Amino acid sequence: MKIGVFFGGKSREREISFAGGRTVIDNLNKLFFEAVPIFVDGHGRFILLNWQHIYKGSIRDFYPEQIHVPASPNGFQVYSDSLNEIKPVSENIGTILEINELSNRFDFAFLALHGLSGEDGSIQGLLEYLNIPYSGSGILGSAIGIDKVKQKLLMQDLGFSIPKFMVLGREECIQNSDSTPFFEQIVSKLGLPFVIKAPHQGSSLGISVVENKEDFEKGILKSLFIEKIYKYKWDQLNLNQKIYKIKEITDLRTGIGFPILVNELKIYHPEELIKFLDSHFLVSEIAWLESENTEAEIMIESFVKGREFSCIVLEDEKSNAFALPPTEIVKGKELFDYRSKYLPGMARKITPIQTTDIQIEKIRTKCVELFQKLKFDVYARIDGFLTENGEIFLNDPNTTSGMMPSSFFFHQAAEIGLNPSEFLTLIINISLIKRIQSGVNIFTYKKLHTELENKLKENKKSFDSKQKIGIVMGGYSSERHISIESGRN
Prior knowledge:
The chain is an alpha+beta fold.
């Protein structure tokens, strides 16, 4: 079966998607599947990627091609959507696929995309229109899974314990971000600390814990992907410091990204931005930099003090949902943000969460209940908190989990004895069953599912004849962590 692995994408989480897609491609069982790498670029184009680029460290290491990238004396790297026009794709990168070509290239789409245009129902809708089966939740569950505000309202109506929250419009927030009465009004409703969130972002992007008035303005701007720069601070920086500052604030993962809007001007490249700021601060004291891809509103909720966990929920062949052992997240700071999630050593994952068996079962039961009531399919990741008095708050359910080797997705699967290859096979198998249940194009979907089932049975019979290879890793040296990563690969 040819598996089109969709990775990259248009969202701020494209690098996580890129790394996750590589993990999926590496771990698909080659006895059953042939991986077809479908890289989605910043413009939403589908590119049949040449395999060697899959192993680049970052998307910007190979795309866009150097011939299309403006000269950068200060060594800035940019994404394709940071160029002011759409460039052609050469044979060195791969082949652009038109939408009507997709069904001729693969049998099944494995979605390792994240965020908007990846897990919001849009790509799912396109694949359904093309009669291509795909992994994970359908259109409805995906649309609910991407919208934190809709989730909260539904969870509230369904009787789940949720923190107090409020939703504020973009303009109201910008106008009042430095207003003391506005801040005090929110404190009177939610208390301190409270959490500010960007409602349509994953990977803990655009999220802040607010403990005081200074945090409040920073958190508002962070969730709206706006950067406020003061002339007196900019003038204190030398060139190297300015370069570092621009890299920091325009990084898609931790800053606002490109293109950037300043009043009516659109800036595409970091070199342009440095020149603009040097010129702008000759006549102005403040520069407001705004991402072209922002939020229309923000969500603010009271802070839940408790032990944080994450739980993968799966469906079996009969559409019965069950939860894997929940993982406790032990952080070095209050916030499990992008850096904590993806940088080694920033947070520990303990599976199962260190509490009583009764509490673990309560967490699993609650997660399954939410999975079913939000109309999720196949699998989802549900986060939450366990308070000191034993109350369970579920938070930010996601229809797509990260696919990095150490992600919750594979971490918890290992706890029930499934290696990554087996877990991916299970996901594809269950996804085919869910697509059959949709009642559309079922002859083709059933045929694919039957072929996979038959191959699984054949493989089970021949399992004992496989040669066992011992992978020796770890050790006593200071490089033991590198050895573990290499051994896993």
